[in-house]
Structures are given as C-alpha cells and as structure tokens.
C-alpha cells in the first residue's frame, strides 16, 4: 500500500515534470528572435507572402492558444509539421531516428556496463594497489574527455591509420541498421570511453564500502574462499549503486549522443536535434528536446523503481529519495 | 595548509594534475607574448605544414596559421570562460541552494521540484538550443548561458552542504544572538561548508571546459577566428588525413586540461570532504 | 558475474562480426547499374522555392524546357523542341509530344502555363518571381504550343527557362502537399523512396522521352551533412559521386588513385558592401577596402592559385563569359587604403559586421582571410558566421557586408537585374547607381551585339570605379570514382545524371 502511494506520487511528479518542461521548451523557443515565416520563405519573400504564411500557420494566435494546439497534438502523437522541410510530418522521420539512437545507446550499454563493472570490481578488490591506481586514473581520464575528443582519437586510430572502421555512419539505401552494425562500433566506443569512468568509479567505491563491511569481514574470517566471498556476497550488494548510476545516466547519455552522432554523421536523434537547431526548425527542436527530457525523466523514474525493488528495506517517505 | 602539502606529497596523481594545470595557466598568461606569431597570422608559404617545419612547432592549418599559437591563445579563452562559469554558477547555486535549505518548508519543497524539472533537460542540450537560436555567441553570452545551465546542479550541492551544518550549535548560537538570516547563512555557515563548495567549484570547472569545447565543436560556440579548441577540431576535421596535427593537438590540449582539472578536483575532494 | 562477462563478450564479438559481414551484403545484388551520390542535405526541394542545393535530386526527377549542352554550352531542346521570337516580345515554344509525367498523365501546354504562372503566386515566394514578372500573358493555342507575350523586349528570355528553379511541373499534381515528400515530374528518374535528411532512392523512368536514357537503372542519393563525411564514403567505395568538394580533398583524391575530380564550371563568391548604410555608402571606404585586399593570398587561402584555378575581379561578370572585360587588378596598397579611409573620415579605422554562411564551401576561409588582410588598413571585420540556410533566410540582404555564393547566369543581364539593379530582388549590396541602372536597362533591350557589348564594357568600368562588390571565382569541384563515365553538368548548375554510367 505504501508502495502504491509512493508510485502514484512519483508518477504524478513525472507527468508534472513533463508538462512543466513542455511549457518551458515551448516558451524558450517561442521567445527567440527571428520570424518563423520569414525563415521559411527566405529573403525573397514579399511582406504579403510572409503575412499569408503566418496566417496559415496560425502564428498570430495568442501564446496559450498556440501552446494548447501544440501540446494537444503531442498528446495525440502528432508531432506537427517540419518548418524547414515543408509538408513533411515530423512523425515520418522522428521515430526512425529515435530507433537508431536507441540501438546505439543499447550497444554502448552493452560495451560499457560489463567493462566498467569488471574493472570497477577489480579496482575495488585491489583497493590501494597499483592495479587500482591504474584503473582509477584511466577512469578519471576517459570520463574527463569530451565525447568528440575520444571520438577523434578513435577515428585517427581505426579509420585513418588502420582503415578498418568507417569514419561516417551511413546506412546504405534499402538496408536497415541491423545489416550494418559495424557502423555502431566507433560511436558506441566513444560513449563507452565517457561512461566507463563514471560507472567503474562508482562500482569501485561501492565495492570498497562493501568489502570493508562487517559481514564480508566475517565471511572472510570464517575462511570462505576469497573469490566466493567477492562474487557471492560482495558483488550482489555492491551492484546496487552502480545500477542506479547507469539508470540515471541514460538521460544524460541521450544528451551526449548529440556530440557523438554529429562527429560520426550517425542518423539518430542527436544529429537530428543539432540539424533542427541549426536550421531553426522550431517544431522539430521542440519534439527533439521534449523527447530527450522525457527519456531522462522516465529513466530516472524506472531507476527509482528498480532501486526500490532491489532494496526492499527502503522507506517510502517520498520526497527526494 | 601543512596538511594540504603532506597530502599532496602522498598523491602523485594530484601533483601531475596540478602541474599540468599550472602549466596551462602559465601558457595562457605568457604563451601568446612568447609566440612569434599571432593567432590569425597567415603564413602562406607554409599551409598545412607538418609539425617542426617552417618554424612551426606543431605545424600549421589550412590557412597557414600556427597551430601552437592558436592553442596558446585558445587556452586563454577557454580558461577564462570556464573559470567564470564555474564561479558564477557556484555563486548563484550557493545563493539559491542556501536560501532553500535554510528556510526549509514550502520554499525548500518548491525549490527541489523546480530544480528537478530544470535538471531534466541536459545542460548541453539547453545551452545548444539557446545559443543555436540566438545564433551570435560571444564570450559573455556563452558564460551566462552555461552558468545558468549549471546552476540547478550547484544549487542542489549547496543545499545539501548547508543542511549538513544547519543543526549545529554555532548556528543556533548566532540565531540567539539575533543575527539576521543573511549573516548566519554567509558568515556562519558558508565557511563551514567550504569543503563541498570548493569541490563543487573545481568539478564544475572541469565540466565547464568539456561543455565549452563541445559547444565549439557543435558549431554553436564562438565565432572564428577566435581560437576556440573545440571549434579548431571541427574546423579542421575535413583535413584530418592531410594534416592530422590540426585536429589532434587541440584535442590533446582539451584532454590534458580536463584531465588535469579532474585530478585536481579529485584531490580537493579527498582533502576537503572525505578525510574530515 | 563470470557468466555476465562472458555473455557480453560473446555479444560484442557477434555484433562486430555481423557488422563486418553485412558490409558485403550490398555487392551481392544483380546486375543493376546503380549510381550513388552523396551530397549536402537539401531543405525545400520543390522547384521555385528550392535554394539550389538539391543538385542531383531535382534535375533527375524533373525536366526543363531547354537544356544546355555540358560540353559546348549551346542550348538544346528538351521539353520544348523549338523556340522562336521575332521581336523579343512574343515568344513561341513548340512542345515535345508523347511525354508523360511519372503519374501517367500527358505533358501538355497547360503544364508549362502552370509552371510559369506559378512564379507569380504571392503565397509561394517563388525565387523567379522577378524574372517572370515581365510576362504579360501566356496563351496555349494547341496542347503543344505555348505563346508568351512579354511586357517589353527581352532578346535573351529563353535563358530564363534553363534556370534550376524552372523545372516543368504538372498542372494536375498537388505540389503544396506532396512536393516535399513525393516529388513528381517528367524526368529521367522516378522517386521511389525519400527519407528526409537521410537518403533518396530513384529508379529509371522506363518511358523517358529521350531514347537510350537514362543509362543507369537506379540512382541512390545520400544526404550527408558534412563534406568530409561524404568524401569518406567515396573513398570507401560506398558512393560514386560527391559534388562540392574542396581543393584539398581534390589533391587527396587524385593522389589516392581510383578517383577523378572534374570542375564543370566556376562559381562566384560575392563580397558585398552595402551602399545604403555606413560605412560603405562612401565610395572612398569601398575603394579603401579594395586596396586592402591581396587577391593572391585569398586564392591561396582557398587552396588555389590566382589566375589558374581562382580568379578575382571587382565586377560581377565572370571571366569565362564573352561579355567579360579584362581590367588589371589594382593590387594591394595598404598606405593608399589608409589614406582613403582617413579622407573618408575614419583616420582610426572602423569596425564592420561581416555576415557569411559558415558551412558553405570556401566561406570561413574567405571570411577569416579578409579579416586578416584588411586589418592593417584599419578595417576590423566582426565575423558573423551562420549555417548557410540561416544566413540566407535571416541575415543576407540586410547586412553591411556579406559573403554569398552565386552561381553563374549564362546571360549576365539576368544576374545584373537580379543583384545590382537598384530595384533588383536580390540586390544584396543595395547598389543604387543611376548609370548602372541605365546600362542594365539598355543591355536587356539591345538586340545589336556590338552595341550591347559596349554597354557591358562601360558597366564593368563603372564597377571598377565605384562598384559595391568583389568577385572571387572559385572552382566547383565534383569528386568521382574512376568508373563513372560521362558526368555532365553545364554552367546552369543542373547535373545531367541521365547521361552518366558506371563501368
């Protein structure tokens, strides 16, 4: 019962966040300088054609009306029409790109989760030794690099020097991403670089805490094999904070995709967002940013749920858990 | 201070970090005046010259501009903006976070909710949208927007730091003395939360550098010919095969600076927070 | 834990292996001749509102009334089989019979009428609105004849039909709704699949009016945001044609072997100094700027050589045209520039905002070089670079100083009345010079070649004396894989991929 109340509260807050965010995004984009109709028609437009377009796009309606129209469409799954590519429904391009980005994000997840958990555990077990220092330094260094820097280093090595992986991630016409999974490798590795630092450091520190806890010490004193203690007892408990970090970072990861996708020309949500911003395609900007926000909000929510599920001792006080 | 030095001696990573950071600061201050070139000077006899040739230690770009000189000038821009953003966002964060934590109750709840909402949009996306639509970025607009994007995060940290001190006797003592709220917050509590706050400022410094470099890379940062490191990378990416140094050296500059600051910030964290 | 590690490792390997094998998948298709192009992302692709970037897409889907022969530069019949005029006022176009649109409808005079009348639709903002405002009336005495009456004599009117925005559209098709998602014309290729911002797949139009064409069965166009990404696809053998490459990439491709680079024509980069506002309203300042520029350095910054691959002059007429008048460059003279600036009232120099498209070829190079070159003379250019579409839609035409790419107009009078006539719609430098206006009027109406040339000569002198523009001619370069034969693109900028084949 307590859990249900908590769940409803959290869900309510998720919806509240999304509504507030949508207003914020709408306002932010609307108050920006530059006449939308002018942008669409270009400099050769006559004042009459600009006025006609404003009229037909309903740009002269008051702000709340326009927000209502936009948000209403959104709820019904209508993302609106692109400004830049007139007549093109955003829905027709948006979900395809989102799909690509999700696959990229999952591939990256597949790369960095085992890697960073493994090295995090290793560093935690060997805390204070040279192995630990090397892993920790490496983690700190990769975490600090912006994605495009690690990406450039990867491109220089794998594409320019060795010529084994493509610089550009283009899906051949008539094929899907599934048949071209190799284009995912370099972008996913660039993300891995950054995430490895966060996750392995978190894993290390929680491992250290657990290893120093009384029951692990007791288990070791009882003469249980070290490997058994680590894998059977310590890891299970030490994974909890790591899972939280991975979940919390999903939203961040989608933001970080912008840089990676731009570097590799990957046809995903990130490069779509940047091109929307560069062409001032307002409906598309709104759709992209709101979607990135939604990913963040939902992944935080799911992480919270997972955390509660894995750790039943948690008390449901609400507020900032 | 003595503690600090002893700790430093035991931490080689921190020594490396601080040395690199000091080196970059020295480069930023003195580098440009040592260089025989300016960051826009075009040596048309030496376009895309390899490092070490024609008097260009790190080579030249497609316009014959000295890469080393541009990196040195660029360190000025990026350090200035990053320092300002980390300071501004920390100051704003402290004011907002302290007020919320200090007064508690509804103010605090509203604060938390609003911050949660604002933090749902990644800072890079927020800055990109605003800068991209405004179009014309300057050092000032970049500083203001990145500071705003970072403020929710710093405010949460500041609030947390304040809450950890709120119950202490000296706070009650000051209240009984009849000191006003501002005095209690900033004269009594702030010095006692200096640890986490300093950690936050240094960490924010590293984030700011990443962010500014990324914005430059995405093409919504400063205008050329400003030698912005991120912009140098994207500008020269098309000649990465002919002149890899034009891309690699700015990337390494970003990498070394961010890693150095991270090592430093890690150390500050150890000294100020963990070992108390 | 070990299991987790192992499973993940296996997955990673599988993924990589799957990827590597998938690379070979594309080659296994049957013997279709496929031409693959990588080029910039187009925005609007419907003719008329199209800014010229959809270079391979549109000319493949649509046809024009008149084409230009890429080799000889002569006008050749396309959808119009002949065109005649007696006085330059009444023009008769005879149309080709038996031509069908991709949707199966017949091409008739009504479609031409629709295409021409569409230029005057105020809601559309057609880019050729000005050029075709001289049309008085359009008559269609029979389904294959169009008679156009102009308001004034225009001996070069037929050239307007070769413009890239004058693709012939169907009068029965709803371009407002489908123009961007399902474009349809009479062209050599039909649109099969269009994924916005990603790619387009076009197939051979089996009933194309020109026998034996198109040579290819399929045309695949990838929309790639940056040029270096496109080139990496070319190098990897994933595409065959990449337009608008830079001279640096040209050198690289030629060094690699297996590729060739063609330069079908030159483009202009106009550096416009707005005459209607400070500081360039004063000709002394314009002259000072001209004296501050060293064209040789500019050419080098564009990775070229002045007089060989890059040309520079102070008039808008490119040296490839017969109307061009050779005027020696004035040469860089910083002292003179400073003197002129002082005389104009700026002894301490001045600051000007300089707008340009930062992602347009040669854009940042020219902008940064100009800033550096003119600084010693006292000019401080404040560079304002924007993505090209934003630059064109929001800043261009309203800037004290700007850099814009211009395609060559076969008939220079078209360009002059567009961009340098006081009332021209694209008068970016806001030129307002009675003598130039008068000369442009005379040129347009003059039938006698020698007389017209004398007006052109005088016009170019006037530009040298007090013009508002600097003209840097840069090569338009197309990178091709070696097995591409017969790539054609005349100075009209319209690529004719129907002739191209892969060996």
Can you walk me through this structure?
The complex is a heterotrimer of chains A (321), B (276) and C (503). With 321 residues, chain A is mostly helical. Chain A has two domains: 45 residues, no CATH class; 191 residues, MetI-like (MetI-like fold), CATH 1.10.3720.10. In chain A, 74% of the residues lie in helices and 0% in strands. Chain B has a single domain, classed as Orthogonal Bundle (MetI-like fold), CATH 1.10.3720.10. In chain B, 74% of the residues lie in helices and 0% in strands. Chain B contains eleven helices and no strands. In chain B, helix 3 runs parallel beside helix 6 and helix 4 packs across helix 6. In chain B, 55% of the residues are buried. Chain C is built from 14 helices and 19 strands. In chain C, 52% of the residues are buried. In chain C, helix 7 packs antiparallel against helix 9 and helix 13 packs antiparallel against helix 14. In chain C, 29% of the residues lie in helices and 24% in strands. In chain C, strands 11, 12, 13, 14, 15, 16 and 17 form a seven-stranded mixed β-sheet that branches. Chain C has a four-stranded mixed β-sheet with strand order 1-10-9-8. A four-stranded antiparallel β-sheet of chain C has the order 4-5-7-6, with helices on one face. With 503 residues, chain C is of the alpha+beta class. The chains are: A mainly alpha (321), B mainly alpha (276), C alpha+beta (503). At the A-C interface, helix 2, helix 3, helix 5 and helix 11 of A face helix 1, helix 4, helix 5 and helix 11 of C.
Q: For this entry, what is the oligomeric state of its chains?
A: heterotrimer
Q: In the CATH hierarchy, what is the architecture of the largest domain in chain A at level 2? A: Orthogonal Bundle
Question: Structural class from helices and strands of chain A?
Answer: mainly alpha
Q: Give the chain pair forming the largest contact, with residue counts.
A: A-C, 58 and 67 residues
CATH architecture of the largest domain in chain C: Roll
Shape of chain C: globular
Q: What number is the mean pLDDT of chain C?
A: 86
Please summarize the sheet with the most strands of chain C: 7 strands, mixed
**End-to-end separation of chain A:** 18 Å
Per DSSP, the total helix count of chain A is 12
Q: Count of DSSP E strands of chain C?
A: 19
How big is the Rg of chain C?
Answer: 25 Å
């Amino acid at each position: 019962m307590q859990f249900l109340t908590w769940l409803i509260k959290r869900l309510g807050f998720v919806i509240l966040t999304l509504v507030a965010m949508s207003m914020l995004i709408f306002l932010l984009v609307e108050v920006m300088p530059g006449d939308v109709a002018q942008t669409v028609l270009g400099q050769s437009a006559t004042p009459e054609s600009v006025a006609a377009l404003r009229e037909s796009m309903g740009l002269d309606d008051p702000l709340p009306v326009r927000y209502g129209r936009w948000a209403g469409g959104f709820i019904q799954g209508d993302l609106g029409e692109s400004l830049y590519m007139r007549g093109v429904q955003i829905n027709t391009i948006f979900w395809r790109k989102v799909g690509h980005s999700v696959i990229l994000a999952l591939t990256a997840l597949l790369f960095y989760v085992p890697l960073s958990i493994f090295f995090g555990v290793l560093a935690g077990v060997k805390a204070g030794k040279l192995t630990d220092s090397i892993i920790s330094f490496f983690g700190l260094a990769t975490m600090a690099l912006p994605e495009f820097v690690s990406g450039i280093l990867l491109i220089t090595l794998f594409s320019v020097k060795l010529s084994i992986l493509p610089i550009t991630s283009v899906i051949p016409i008539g094929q899907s991403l599934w048949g071209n999974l190799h284009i995912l490798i370099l972008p996913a590795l660039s993300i891995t670089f950054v995430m490895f630092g966060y996750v392995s450091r978190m894993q290390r520190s929680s491992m250290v805490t657990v290893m120093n806890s009384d029951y692990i010490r007791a288990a070791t004193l009882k003469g249980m094999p070290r490997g058994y203690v680590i894998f059977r007892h310590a890891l299970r408990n030490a994974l909890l904070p790591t899972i939280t970090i991975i979940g919390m970072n999903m939203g961040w990861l989608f933001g970080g995709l912008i840089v990676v996708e731009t570097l590799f020309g990957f046809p995903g949500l990130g490069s779509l967002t940047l091109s929307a911003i560069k062409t001032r395609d307002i409906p598309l900007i709104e759709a992209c940013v709101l979607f990135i926000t939604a990913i963040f909000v939902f992944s935080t929510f799911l992480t919270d749920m997972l955390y509660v599920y894995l750790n039943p001792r948690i008390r449901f006080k609400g507020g900032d858990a | 201070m003595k503690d600090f030095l002893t700790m430093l001696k035991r931490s080689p990573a921190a020594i490396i970090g601080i040395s690199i950071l000091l080196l970059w600061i020295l480069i930023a201050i003195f580098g440009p005046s040592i260089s025989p070139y300016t960051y826009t000077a075009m040596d048309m006899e030496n376009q895309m010259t390899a490092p070490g040739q024609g008097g260009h230690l790190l080579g030249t770009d497609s316009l014959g501009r000295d890469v080393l000189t541009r990196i040195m000038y660029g360190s000025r821009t990026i350090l200035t903006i990053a320092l300002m953003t980390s300071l501004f966002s920390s100051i704003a964060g402290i004011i907002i976070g302290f007020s919320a934590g200090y007064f508690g109750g509804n103010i605090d709840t509203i604060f938390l909710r609003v911050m949660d909402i604002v933090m749902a949009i990644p800072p890079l996306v927020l800055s990109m949208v605003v800068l991209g639509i405004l179009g014309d970025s300057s050092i000032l607009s970049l500083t203001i927007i990145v500071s705003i994007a970072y403020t929710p995060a710093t405010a949460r940290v500041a609030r947390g730091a304040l809450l950890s001190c709120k119950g202490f006797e000296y706070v009650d003592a000051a209240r009984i003395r009849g000191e006003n709220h501002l005095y209690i917050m900033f004269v009594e509590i702030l010095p006692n939360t200096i640890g986490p706050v300093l950690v936050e400022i240094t960490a924010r410094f590293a984030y700011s550098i990443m962010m500014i470099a990324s914005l430059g890379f995405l093409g919504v940062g400063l205008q050329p010919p400003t030698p912005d490191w991120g912009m140098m990378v994207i500008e020269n990416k098309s000649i990465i095969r002919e002149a890899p140094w034009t891309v690699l050296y700015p990337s390494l500059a970003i990498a070394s600076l961010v890693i150095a600051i991270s090592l430093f910030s890690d150390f500050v964290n150890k000294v100020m927070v963990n070992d108390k | 834990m070990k299991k987790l590690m192992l499973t993940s490792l296996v997955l990673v390997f599988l993924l990589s292996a799957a990827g590597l094998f998938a690379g070979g998948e594309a080659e296994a298709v049957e013997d279709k001749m496929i031409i693959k192009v990588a080029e910039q992302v187009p925005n609007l692709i419907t003719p008329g509102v199209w800014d010229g970037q959809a270079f391979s897409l549109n000319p493949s889907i649509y046809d024009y009334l008149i084409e230009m022969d890429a080799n000889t530069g002569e006008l050749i019949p396309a959808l119009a089989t002949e065109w005649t005029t007696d006085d330059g006022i009444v023009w008769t176009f005879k149309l080709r019979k038996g031509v069908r649109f991709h949707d199966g409808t017949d091409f008739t005079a009504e479609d031409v009428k629709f295409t021409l009348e569409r230029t005057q639709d105020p809601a559309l903002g057609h880019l050729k609105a000005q050029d075709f405002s001289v049309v008085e009336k359009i008559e269609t005495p029979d389904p294959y004849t169009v008679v156009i009456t102009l308001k004034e004599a225009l001996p070069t009117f037929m050239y307007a039909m070769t413009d890239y925005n004058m693709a012939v559209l169907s009068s029965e098709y709803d371009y407002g709704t489908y123009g961007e998602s399902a474009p349809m014309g009479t062209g050599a290729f039909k649109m099969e699949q269009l994924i916005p911002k990603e790619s387009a797949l076009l197939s051979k139009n089996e009933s194309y009016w020109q026998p034996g064409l198109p040579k290819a069965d399929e045309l695949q166009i990838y929309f790639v945001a940056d040029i270096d990404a496109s080139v990496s696809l070319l190098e990897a053998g994933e595409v065959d044609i990449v337009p608008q490459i830079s001279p640096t990439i040209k050198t690289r491709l030629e060094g690699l072997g297996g590729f060739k680079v063609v330069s079908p024509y030159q483009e202009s980069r106009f550096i416009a100094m707005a005459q209607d506002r400070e500081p360039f309203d004063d000709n002394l300042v314009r002259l000072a700027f001209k004296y501050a520029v060293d064209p040789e350095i500019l050419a080098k910054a564009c990775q070229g050589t002045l007089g060989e691959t890059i040309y520079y002059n102070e008039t808008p007429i490119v040296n490839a045209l017969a109307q061009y008048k050779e005027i020696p460059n004035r040469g860089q003279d910083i002292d003179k520039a400073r003197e002129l600036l002082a005389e104009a009232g700026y002894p301490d120099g001045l600051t000007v905002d300089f707008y340009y498209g930062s992602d347009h070829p040669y854009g940042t190079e020219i902008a940064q070089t100009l800033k550096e070159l003119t600084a010693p003379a006292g000019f401080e250019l404040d560079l304002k670079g924007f993505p090209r579409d934003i630059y064109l839609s929001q800043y261009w035409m309203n800037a004290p100083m700007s850099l814009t790419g211009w395609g060559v107009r076969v008939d220079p009078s078209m360009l002059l009345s567009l961009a340098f006539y006081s009332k021209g719609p694209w008068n970016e430098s806001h030129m307002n010079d009675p003598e130039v206006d008068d000369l442009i009027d005379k040129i347009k109406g003059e039938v006698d070649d020698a007389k017209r040339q004398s007006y052109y000569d005088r016009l170019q002198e006037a530009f040298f004396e007090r013009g508002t523009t600097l003209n840097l001619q840069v090569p338009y370069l197309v990178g091709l894989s070696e097995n591409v034969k017969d790539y054609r693109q005349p100075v009209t900028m319209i690529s004719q991929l129907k002739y191209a084949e892969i060996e």
